[in-house]
Amino acid sequence: MPAELAIGIHDLSVATTQYVLTHATLAAHNGSDVAKYQRGIGQRSMSVPAADEDIVTMAAAAAAPIVARHGAERIRTVVFATESSVDQAKAAGIHVHSLLGLPSATRVVELKQACYSGTAALQFAIGLVHRDRTEQVLVIASDVSKYDLGSPGEATQGAAAVAMLISADPALVRIEDPSGMFTADIMDFWRPNYRNTALVDGRESISAYLQAVEGTWKDYTERGGHKLDELSAFCYHQPFTKMAYKAHRHLLNYCGYEVDEARINGAIANTTAYNEVIGNSYTASVYLALAALLDTAGDLSGKAIGFLSYGSGSVAEFFAGTVVPGYRAHLRADAHREAIDRREDIDYARYREIHTHAFPVDGGDYPVPRETTGPYRLAGLSGHKRIYEPR
Ligand code: CAA
């Protein structure tokens, strides 16, 4: 597509939580060798939401700087991607719409398909901008990943939101055709409506992910996508950062390349800096990989990047984007680093208290203590309604 007709990511902003639990603290509690976490799965710490934080407060915190920079006049649609939704009916994006004071002439919707739906949101947004190039779409991927205490998944929890402004003539990344798609009916990871922690078959989930890498790549190349060598870096969904290395090794094997660790490092190493300290942020994870790549790598102007978005269950998509020359002037690297560095370390006892907290379900008034130092907070529950406010 000629550059002047391009559509893609015009701005990107990351937010995470008030607290952080290190894997050293988790290992000291459960007797694991910390190397299993730091080297084995490639994780150093995980974001933990305060009592007055959730997917809405993180989403609003991520999106507010975008609205402040570009205004809201052209945003006609907000698509909120999540698998840790706060309501079965109302879209979480409506709370964000209200907190940010967006115009009433806006369409707001929530999308779900495990960790994949951020990419569905991006592709739907591109379709809307194709229809009217003057419109912009605010895509927000926000999730809190939660597994049972003491389960193998516990070390892969985390929480973050990534907000992206999708528009014509984007400043950061032009998203290209084609996409490679893959769907398979697999129960590798799921969360029934009556549970607030996910269920997972860990080993099955890893092989399902690798099967999806093959399936998407096959469809992508059959539709005329880039050759592997034409892609400078690969942003994979990162439930834990070692998964990106496993996936890329698998892709190289599948394409008949010698497995060369230096080549794998070159493709992946710049994409993991945020995920390894934030943990799994489900829908946001692949776009946190992009944020880390853009913020920390050398000049990528004009380079093509591959994206592999995987959502258990499973749906996956492989697509590519080209980094726009001049993109570095539009990055938010300092704010992203600040959002990560300002988190307060918590000990295991505090983490456990937060993990086991659940609101009563009787519809009473339950104000939430002030904990977050972020811009928005969950003030409480009243009459079964969540009340949000600027802090
Ligand atoms: N030093 C260095 N490495 C060590 C070590 C040590 N002391 N001890 C173990 N390791 C290595 C192991 O060799 C292993 O590496 P390989 O996989 O490369 O062999 C790694 O550390 C993990 O060890 P285990 O497999 O023994 O760990 P585990 O059984 O406790 O669980 C897990 C690992 C299955 C990933 C688990 O954390 C889990 O279930 N996580 C949730 C599911 C998940 O993230 N799945 C990913 C694909 S699904 C997806 O992507 C969607 C999503 O977001 C959920």
From TrEMBL:
(3S)-3-hydroxy-3-methylglutaryl-CoA binds at D33, Y147, K246, N280. Residues 179-263, 265-326 form the Hydroxymethylglutaryl-coenzyme A synthase C-terminal domain. GO terms for molecular function: hydroxymethylglutaryl-CoA synthase activity. The active site is at E83 (proton donor/acceptor), C115 (acyl-thioester intermediate), H237 (proton donor/acceptor). GO terms for biological process: acetyl-CoA metabolic process. Keywords: Transferase. Residues 7-169 form the Hydroxymethylglutaryl-coenzyme A synthase N-terminal domain. Pfam families: HMG_CoA_synt_C, HMG_CoA_synt_N. Gene3D superfamilies: 3.40.47.10. Belongs to the thiolase-like superfamily. HMG-CoA synthase family. NCBIfam families: HMG-CoA-S_prok. This is Putative 3-hydroxy-3-methylglutaryl-coenzyme A synthase (HMG-CoA synthase). The gene is mvaS.2.
